[in-house]
Amino acid sequence: MSFVFLGIDHVQLAANEGCEPDARKFYGELLGWTEIPKPESLRQRGGVWFQCGTHQVHIGVQKNFLPATKAHPAFGVQNINLLRQHLIQHNIQIINDDARESEDCLRFYLNDPFGNRLEFIEWGVVRDE
C-alpha cells in the first residue's frame, strides 16, 4: 500500500448549544487541558477545542444532542490514582471498571458535563496482590 495511517489526529465529542462555558470549566480548568483556538472559518459553529497530550479533543455543537453513553474515547494517563482523587475532590462521580483486572492497567470512567462517557486508563500498573 502507498498510504500509511499515522494514528488519531483528534477526537470529536458532541454537546448541546451553549456548551462552551461548561466545556472550558470541565476540560480546561478541571482536567487542565489547554484550549486551542478554532480556525476562523469554524468559529461560527460553536464548540471549543482542547489539547490532550499529543492529541486534540474537539467539543462540537450538535442539534438534537444526545450523549454518547457507550462509544467513548479512552485517555492514557500517568498517575491515574492522583487524577481519580482530584476528580473525586471536585465531586465528579467515578465509575470504576475492573473488567480488565488481569491486565497491567487501571481504568475508570466518568461522564462529562454533557453526559458523554470518557475512559481514563494507565498501563504498566503493578497491582497489589
TrEMBL record:
Record-linked InterPro entries: Glyas_Bleomycin-R_OHBP_Dase, Glyas_Fos-R_dOase_dom, VOC_core
Coiled-coil residue windows: none
Domain VOC: 7-123
Xref: Pfam families: Glyoxalase
Protein name from the UniProt record: Glyoxalase
